[in-house]
Design goal:
The protein is α+β, with helices and mostly antiparallel strands. It has helices spanning about 45-60, 65-75, 90-105; strands at about 1-5, 15, 20-25, 30-35, 80, 85, 125-130, 135-140, 155-160, 175-180, 205-215, 225-230. The protein is built from three helices and twelve strands, in the order E-E-E-E-H-H-E-E-H-E-E-E-E-E-E.
């Protein structure tokens, strides 16, 4: 999918021309190939669909004042766009992002909204390593802000392995919860979650584009920390 920068010649475009489909998103105009979506109905896909389908009911169950507080937080918190700028999303969108990540981590949904505008700080990881021999991802960190705070969690968004000659991620990521923060028993480093794409290939055979992101205890998503990893 390509993003389009509007100009004096093109302010808006949508519809289909040949095999290309044009449309508009929160990030701006896009162009993509016309394809029939894959629907493998995998366990992972069914789990995510179940979480997403439950999110609107969780939003509706919130107190009206809490929903208004989420709207206010969203209005004061622009988020990065793929074009390098920022976009505004709704309070509902902000809530759903937090709700889904907490569900993936096995955490209870929040019944309040963030009181401090802006994104939380970066996860501040030391390194991420994909190792063929162990078949695991090694996530190393020192003393980041989320580690000793109950109600926080660290996630990785891992893109499918690809040839080392490519310079950008080519696939949607799969999400894995690395660990949850705790004031009583903070997680140790390194954490070693399984790779969400299955077996890790031979050393040097491919690379992984990975983004680390946290949720804080109030519902704020963190700034993304990006990595480009060869296989060790």
């Amino acid at each position: 999918m390509a993003l389009i920068s509007p100009s004096a010649l093109i302010e808006s475009i949508r519809g289909k021309v040949g095999g290309t489909v044009f449309g508009n998103t929160q990030a701006g105009p896009i162009a993509r190939m016309r394809v029939i979506p894959r629907n493998p109905k995998s366990d992972r896909q069914r789990e995510v669909r179940s979480i997403l389908s439950a999110a609107p009911a969780a939003w509706a169950a919130l107190n009206a004042n809490v929903r208004s507080a989420w709207d206010a937080y969203a209005a004061d918190t622009p988020v990065p766009s793929r074009m390098g700028g920022t976009i505004q999303v709704s309070g509902f969108d902000m809530f759903v992002r937090d709700y889904c990540l907490r569900a993936i981590a096995g955490m209870s949904p929040l019944t309040s909204a963030p009181s401090t505008p802006g994104l939380a700080a970066s996860p501040n990881l030391s390194s991420i390593t994909f190792t063929h021999a162990s078949g695991q991802i090694s996530v190393a960190f020192g003393s980041p802000w989320w580690k000793s705070v109950t109600g926080t969690a660290l996630f990785l968004r891992v893109h499918a392995p690809q040839r080392v000659t490519r310079n950008t991620s080519q696939t949607p990521p799969r999400i894995v919860c690395v660990c949850k923060g705790s004031s009583g028993s903070p997680p140790s480093s390194p954490q070693t979650p399984d790779c969400p794409w299955g077996t890790i290939g031979d050393a040097g055979s491919a690379e992984y584009y990975t983004e680390a992101v946290c949720i804080d205890s109030t519902g704020r998503l963190s700034v993304i920390q990006s990595f480009r990893n060869d296989i060790a």
